[in-house]
Amino acid sequence: VRAGQLLASMLRCTRAWKLPREGLGSHSPSFARVPVAPSSSGGRGEAEPRPLPLSYRLLDGEAALPAVVFLHGIFGCKTNFNSIAKAFAQQTGRRVLTVDARNHGNSPHSPDMSYEIMSQDLQDLLPRLGLVPCVMVGHSMGGRTAMLLALQRSQPPP
């Protein structure tokens, strides 16, 4: 019970990521993508890296509540969060998403690897799953990815 109270308290203190009123799309200035930095592939004049179809596990919950998204660290994968994701979904009634980052777990592998492109992968996935707004929780590499996404998608409070 105490863990559930702590989690509820943490959620009340977070700002959720919200869709712009005009929706998503390249015409929307509030959804403008931050340019992707040169990737680890060496930037040999190739086209800008595209988001990959990430592997994920989505636990069902109340759609009216912002979902919680767990992002693993550099040597991890989505299964690192199985226990906490299940407990979180049960205790809070929220949808909970665990994701394998590109080049990790069951997600596709690509020579393009940067925090910017990992953020773009999530910016592609989350709206497709109907998980905007959401609360992001990341460990190490996942935390840095979550922080970059928050900077790219930050909006002033209503």
TrEMBL record:
Residues 66-153 form the AB hydrolase-1 domain. Keywords: Hydrolase. The keyword Hydrolase applies. It catalyses: 1-octadecanoyl-2-(9Z-octadecenoyl)-sn-glycerol + H2O = 2-(9Z-octadecenoyl)-glycerol + octadecanoate + H(+); 1-octadecanoyl-2-(4Z,7Z,10Z,13Z,16Z,19Z-docosahexaenoyl)-sn-glycerol + H2O = 2-(4Z,7Z,10Z,13Z,16Z,19Z-docosahexaenoyl)-glycerol + octadecanoate + H(+); 1,2-didecanoylglycerol + H2O = decanoylglycerol + decanoate + H(+); a 1,2-diacyl-sn-glycerol + H2O = a 2-acylglycerol + a fatty acid + H(+). Its EC number is 3.1.1.116. Belongs to the AB hydrolase superfamily. This is sn-1-specific diacylglycerol lipase ABHD11. It comes from Piliocolobus tephrosceles (Ugandan red Colobus).
